[in-house]
Specification:
There is one protein chain. By secondary structure, this protein is mainly alpha-helical. The protein contains 13 helices and 6 strands. Strand 3 and strand 4 form a beta hairpin. The radius of gyration is 28 Å and the shape is elongated.
């Protein structure tokens, strides 16, 4: 009996230090987790030298009054957050370079969901608009896939934050199908998140409520720079960074050899990054929607509302409800999608309606505003 007691005592002396070590490590882990969870992230996050560049950008950005945690989440918000932060610690200890930190697509989408806490209206408009389309809506579109084979360039505008190649997204890569996503979880994920057109650490003054623009003239709505465009930027997949719209060039568009007048509105430069013509710059080719005809020189923002891209009601901004021919401009088929449309808003010319010649403008009718 005494031998058994001595063996038990010896085991206890071995186990006790292990238990104490485990308790100590557990307390350190929970204490550190609590410190990073409840302390201001502006102090905890920048304690890592990897975050120095991002922090410097944030301190001069339009969102500098918004805590890091409000956009990127906390250290212990979920099991996913714990896993991500553990990976960061691992990379910190194992990798030599720390100057190439980028958000993955998964992290980008998680950050995007936090945008709606401050930008609820804009988020709702985006979600219900064309740019809120999902992976399934883009890559499983049978009508498109039967006519055009998907390629790597598809990811330039759709799924630009995806780290893989087109073969990692959808299969098969042909025009016969049937097509399926390589990862079914991606079906409902958006392909054009907020960060495709916005950069969150953009320099500028903190945001304030936008003034009422309901009484702005047609000219100012059409071509004048927006009141605030600090965050507007195009994310280039190959470079893995965003380029502000003021740094984007005005595209050279031609129509049958003639140079098309393109709006100088910087916002349109953003649109034409994806809605671009072919390599020759021909108006109306590929995905180009640059206005020609009677609307030449007008900015995309004249008709398309931001985020939702809705165009309903935009005609009466510049036109009377009824034309001189008693046509209701709100009832015209102005869509560019239908080849049967006689009033394609992007290509409409006077001669399309006035087949016998364009009549001269009566002296009593004021001239059109000088589109810039």
């Amino acid at each position: 009996m005494s031998n058994k007691n001595s063996v038990s005592t010896e085991r206890a002396w071995y186990i006790l230090p292990l238990l104490m070590t485990a308790v100590f490590l557990g307390c350190c882990f929970l204490g550190g987790l609590g410190y990073f969870e409840f302390s201001p992230p502006e102090k905890t996050c920048i304690s890592c030298h990897e975050m120095a560049v991002s922090n410097m950008r944030w301190t001069n950005s339009v969102h500098r009054n918004v805590s890091c945690k409000d956009c990127h989440g906390g250290s212990a918000d979920s099991w996913h957050a714990l896993r991500e932060n553990s990976k960061r610690v691992f990379y910190h200890l194992t990798e030599k370079r720390h100057d190439n930190i980028r958000l993955t697509e998964e992290q980008t989408l998680r950050t995007m969901k936090n945008c709606q806490s401050c930008h609820a209206r804009e988020f709702a408009h985006w979600q219900n608009g064309g740019h809120g389309i999902s992976y399934a809506g883009i890559f499983l579109d049978e009508k498109h896939n039967h006519t055009e084979q998907m390629a790597e360039d598809c990811l330039r505008c759709h799924a630009m934050f995806n780290e893989g190649q087109i073969a990692d997204v959808v299969t098969p890569l042909n025009i016969t199908g049937p097509w399926q996503l390589m990862n079914p979880v991606m079906a409902g994920q958006p392909t054009i998140p907020c960060q495709a057109c916005h950069t969150l650490h953009a320099p500028g003054a903190p945001f304030q409520r936008m003034p009422d623009t309901s009484d702005m003239t047609a000219v100012s709505i059409t071509n004048a720079p927006s009141v605030r465009r600090d965050t507007l930027a195009f994310y280039v997949r190959q470079e893995k960074c965003s380029f502000p719209i003021d740094d984007l060039s005005i595209p050279r568009i031609v129509e049958r050899g003639r140079i098309v007048k393109v709006s100088s509105d910087p916002r349109q430069r953003l649109c034409t990054q994806c809605h671009a013509p072919n390599a020759l710059g021909e108006a109306g080719s590929c995905d180009d929607c640059t206005p020609t005809g009677v609307h030449e020189g007008i900015s995309c923002a004249a008709c398309h509302k931001p985020h939702s891209n809705d165009t309903r009601g935009s005609c009466v901004t510049c036109h009377p409800r009824f034309t001189a021919c008693s046509q209701d401009v709100m009832a015209m088929d102005t869509t560019y999608r239908s080849r049967k449309s006689k009033h394609n808003i992007h290509r409409l010319k006077c001669i399309d309606c006035h087949t016998k010649g364009v009549p001269e403008r009566p002296a009593s009718v004021p001239p059109l505003p000088p589109w810039k």
